From TrEMBL:
The keyword Coiled coil applies. This is Secretion protein HlyD. One of its GO terms (cellular component) is cell envelope. It comes from the Bacteria. Keywords: Coiled coil. Signal peptide: none annotated. Its main location: other. It is found in: Cell envelope. The keyword Coiled coil applies.
Amino acid sequence: VIARIEVTVTDEQIRQMEQTLELSEKNLAQIKQGVMIQRPVVHSGGGGASSAEIENAKNKLDQMNRLYEMGAVSGIQRDEAAAQYQAVLSRGGGSSSVTYESSYQPPNEEAVRRAEIQVNQARMALEQAKTSSSATEITAPVDGVVYLNGIETGSEIKAGDVVAFVGNDNDIWVEAYLNPNESDYAVLGQLAYFFVDRKKYEGTIVEVISPEVDGESQDSNTANSEAGYTSPYPSGKIVVKIAIPREAKDGIHFGNNVDLRLSK
């Protein structure tokens, strides 16, 4: 065990998320069913409002019904248009009568898409919360030594965060970071000298990683951030890796600082 975590998601929060997901799924199912719309049909027996007034009120009601299905107006606004239509029909004391005919309104594609997004978001939030609530200890995936902590005690973490760097002392190297104008010192196969506890060792440069240019660095950082990965190397630096001789490995461990000497 390399870390112990305190769960911040409570059982009550999980129950609320389950209810949110259930309501979102019911809302999606209801939207996919479409709706039945009742449209008034006027049977005029003479007198009352003019046919032009009735037609205008009916057109407004039809428009409000369409906007309501799109989610652009509220049910109250639609009902007001229906009431105005009824008022026009009854104005003037004519002998008009009204009947209603039902028609099926298919689901709106945009409304379905928005409801599906809400369901997916609710499901992902619930799954992440359940994962967080079940994890209380973090164990090392391999045998080795914790040589660098990825988080501070008391900090908040989420899935994908690096907690610690674990390594094996049998496979280590010296790593140095140079400025671009110091590239003459970074030559593959060149000898390098370093000191640990005032003891001198000799190694060989086995790998040189060039710094990324600004455009590539920005694109790479964006892609890595989306993938949940952060580069361990300083931005804009030349990375030089130096192999450690066998006789030096007993005195060098992960995380040690060394005094490195490079020459052109």
